[in-house]
Amino acid sequence: MNTLRINLPYVIFLGDIQDSMLAKTGLGLVKWSKDQVVGQLRLPGCKVDLGVADLTLQSAVAQGAKSLVLGVATVGGSISDAWLPVLVQALENGLDIVNGLHTDLNKIPALAAAKAKGGSQIVNVRGAHQALPVGTGRKRQGMRILTVGTDCAVGKKYTALAMAQCLKANGIAATFRATGQTGIMIAGEGLAVDSVISDFVSGAAELISPDNDSGHWDVVEGQGSLFNPSFSAVSMGLLHGSQPDALILCHDAARLKVSTCPTYAIPTLQECMDLHLRCAKIVNPSARFIGVSINTSSLPAAERKAYLDQLQQELGLPCVDPLVEGCQLFVEQLQQQKTAGM
Amino acid sequence: MNTLRINLPYVIFLGDIQDSMLAKTGLGLVKWSKDQVVGQLRLPGCKVDLGVADLTLQSAVAQGAKSLVLGVATVGGSISDAWLPVLVQALENGLDIVNGLHTDLNKIPALAAAKAKGGSQIVNVRGAHQALPVGTGRKRQGMRILTVGTDCAVGKKYTALAMAQCLKANGIAATFRATGQTGIMIAGEGLAVDSVISDFVSGAAELISPDNDSGHWDVVEGQGSLFNPSFSAVSMGLLHGSQPDALILCHDAARLKVSTCPTYAIPTLQECMDLHLRCAKIVNPSARFIGVSINTSSLPAAERKAYLDQLQQELGLPCVDPLVEGCQLFVEQLQQQKTAGM
Question: Are B317 and B291 in contact (CB under 8 A)?
Fold first, then answer.
């Protein structure tokens, strides 16, 4: 029983897209795992540039690429006929295709045939996972950080990636643990917990973050929110399966209503921390928050500092926008608490 | 988009089993939906008797049976070869087979062929459900009771069934809403929420308990527990999707450890109520507990009353074993709270 694993490194396929908004996955890969990206493959007319080497399929293979990533979001999640010849050629040449779209590429006959011919795979990152274990609640060795949030899409993935990077920069052993499709592509492995049968969510989270060295930190990408009625099941299973020692609360300063349930107000940060902590302590009595990560992109530059300072005073924890200040204060908080014996 | 629906009435198939422990589903059907049971179908040598009419396949069809229920649990969830001829005959004669086992009967070629010939269906009660909606959190008309628990298997289904029956006996409109396989067989419809992809658990719960008359009570069968790390995701999604106005806490007086996680202590009843209420109030600010349902079968008869009296004093709510005292005190509590404007 394993998490999903991707053969690295990647060549990022951009097709003939015109708008960089559609290339979010590709941009994320270049930002967070550039050493796993050999280059980009663009069709004539493509207007997006990820700032990495332009390759042909042949040159990508020559440079060691093992997978071609569909680094493109498309309307409706389907793929263009104009892309098929390159995708067929990739599979026939032994490159896996890593697919984050909703379309199951195995159902396209030309691709299924090409895969058989090349002995390659189509890795469906959104695919539901079979034969997962039920969560056991067993305490695992090593330590874990989980990013949780006041809602969906408030920076939980970004914060987890930045925190893992910052821990490593401080000489602390750490691994980013992916629980969603983009995160999985960046990490090269993981499980999309929102695609798992509900009985197995905490079991999936236990698999994602297995026993490790006692000084090692897994930084687990959070999903949803206990306060978002659409996705709270996923959040709860992930919280109980990851058994976090430390939590980081993520919030978007502009968010007033729950994204998928607009009649629901976003909770206060304090009540959000209280409930997550109450639930986390069921599986890990020493769980505690080490900081608050705020997306401040909506705030006027002149108001950012006052906003964060006031929050920090209210909550008694470092409050930063990781995109601006990085995660160093979270790492220091972690180390101070450790020194204080927490 | 619909919940799973079963064609009624049933004939209950018991095969050639020797032990009534294996006939729990059949016993549940006879207890809770006897008017939907035309009789039992037993093979030679069967030592279990549900106390209903013995029928042949022909007489079951003649009496209007629309479905044959596999009312038997088997080790490993598979079926015996000795049962196949009857099952083939049932499908060929247009009876649906309602299957609560893990085995997908569609994969047995003889049954697939018989189904095609008879124009009948194999209803897989444990089957994963496709194309469910994401939960919206929208407030629905009508009222809802949810049974929650300190753990799995502490009487949530039994209590919900008994409560729905008791409400009706008091002249109050009520419907039992099934969320697990046995419950679905009893109700003839429902969704097995633990088989749903985690992103859709609350959406499934919303489907199960749709808008209704303003004075009507849905009594929703709970699953798992927020305190059981194996299944808390299911419990949370069900809690948020069912938006309960009223909750009944279920507990087994003998249970000290969480069934699937034996290093975890069962929470106190008060802390269990506190956390469920905190989470319920996210979707329904007027949610409240109306009683505590205790499985007292492990207690010496002489200690039962003192145990329940003390609990009732501690918690300030009716505490009963529905198997002994019924649910009348819960109904009265509901009506008192209503009079008090709660």
Answer: yes
**Interface with B, mutate which of A130, A181, A209, A236 (most B CBs under 10 A):** A236
What ipTM was predicted for this assembly?
0.90
**Single-letter residue type at A226:** L
Contacts of A137 in chain B (CB under 8 A): 229-230, 258, 260-261, 263-264
- State pTM to two decimals: 0.91
CB contact under 8 A, B230 and A264: no
Q: Are B149 and B143 in contact (CB under 8 A)?
A: no
Are B232 and A202 inside 8 Å of each other by CB? yes
Chain segment B288-301, per-residue pLDDT in tens? 999 999 999 999 99
Structure confidence by residue, pLDDT tens digits, A113-138: 999 999 999 998 877 566 789 999 99
Angstroms from A136 CA to nearest CA on chain B:
6
SS3 content of chain B, % helix, strand, coil (to 5): 40, 20, 40
Query: b/e per residue, A93-116, with b = 16+ CB within 10 A?
Result: bbbbbbbbbebebeebeebeebbe
Closest chain B residue to the Cα of A241, Cα to Cα: B229
What stretch of H or E contains B183?
helix B181-187
A60 membership: H or E segment, kind and range: helix A57-62
